[in-house]
UniProtKB/TrEMBL annotation:
InterPro entries: ACMSD (IPR032465), Amidohydro-rel (IPR006680), Metal_Hydrolase (IPR032466). This is Amidohydrolase-related domain-containing protein. GO terms for cellular component: cytosol. Residues 51-320 form the Amidohydrolase-related domain. It comes from the Eukaryota. The keyword Lyase applies. Keywords: Decarboxylase, Lyase. GO terms for biological process: secondary metabolic process.
């Protein structure tokens, strides 16, 4: 059954990646094991991508640059300009999240301002760390303040571990097992969740109580551990709100890298339905994966039709002001 037979073009997808022509693509090819078709799909922000979106029932993708391959501030600016050009060519099919030089928080704040004021972006999507550096320190206050000033979301997504981090996952098994364990299957998701706990423990959500944080992959494990974290974080210091309160008030989530129904079933136990939005993680997952997940959701009867529509597009329309 094709997507056109199952759904109209109404779906909005939030974690959909591209690779700018302004970045050295040979560097990207050398650093990953992704096959050439994935690289080609990353580079296509035109008719080929739109054709795939049509086949998957996707009305609009919020573009984000793939992880970790802009080398300096000028490269980040060029990447954002390229995404803005793609949006300008197809404004009913694309929006964009800013790609930011998080190793330099002041320059990241400046580039964020430019992306919002001049390029009309919907927020920012950044790597979980900048060369092993996380974002809880006071040097990032100006960056968080800029996000609050514009009232826009900050999407924190997993990224490649440093060599030191990756060494923790070495063992008496194949390099493929080590890579999967440290990254795609497990490690970088938990590293992203731990980053959120760092932000909470450091008082970032006290200093900036209106932050809007998006996490992909059904919350990077946080919904599963929410009550556990709530219990053990009670004595972490003079923090004005509990972790459960911050979770309820400051976080939104997407279904990126969707595979089954179980992660969403878990989320619905402790997460507001209005905080969950759709994402595929294209092109690392295919549009057809999104179609199949929607069909699994319908068959599961976990959600009513109107509730599934909230996840597929209504929540994103409201949250990102997309018409």
């Amino acid at each position: 059954m094709t997507s056109s037979e199952t759904q109209p073009l109404r779906i909005i997808a939030l974690e959909e990646h591209c690779l700018s022509a302004s970045v050295d693509q040979s560097l990207y090819r050398n650093k990953t094991s992704f096959p050439p078709p994935v690289i080609e799909s990353l580079c296509d922000v035109g008719e080929g991508r739109i054709k795939s979106m049509d086949a998957g029932g996707i009305k609009l993708q919020v573009l984000s640059h793939t992880a970790g391959y802009a080398e300096d501030v000028l490269s980040y600016q060029a990447v954002n300009n390229d995404m803005a050009e793609a949006v300008a060519k197809n404004p009913t099919r694309f929006a964009a999240f800013a790609h930011l030089p998080m190793a330099d928080p002041l320059k990241a704040a400046d580039e964020l301002r430019r992306c919002i004021n001049e390029l009309g972006f919907k927020g920012a999507l950044v790597d979980n760390h900048a060369g092993g550096r996380y974002y809880e320190g006071p040097e990032y206050n100006s960056f968080w303040a800029t996000l609050e000033e514009f009232d826009i979301p900050f999407y924190l997504r997993p990224t490649m571990l440093t060599s030191t981090m990756a060494d923790w996952y070495q063992g008496s098994y194949s390099p493929q097992a080590s890579m999967g364990m440290s990254h795609f299957a497990f490690g970088w998701h938990f590293d992203t969740a731990t980053h959120i706990l760092r932000l909470y423990a450091a008082g970032v959500f006290d200093r900036f109580p209106k932050l809007k944080i998006i996490l992909g992959h059904f919350g990077e494990s946080l919904p599963f551990f929410l009550e556990h974290i709530q219990w053990f974080s009670a004595n972490w210091g003079p923090i004005s709100r509990s972790f459960q309160q911050v979770y309820a008030e400051n976080f939104w989530f997407t279904t990126s890298s969707l595979k089954g129904v179980a992660p969403l079933a878990c989320m619905l136990q402790n997460t507001k339905l209005g905080r969950i939005m759709f994402g595929i993680d294209y092109p690392f997952l295919k549009m057809q994966d999104g179609v199949e997940w929607i069909e699994k959701m319908r068959a599961s009867r976990l959600l009513k039709k109107e509730e599934l529509e909230m996840i597929l597009y209504r929540n994103a329309e409201l949250f990102l002001n997309i018409k």
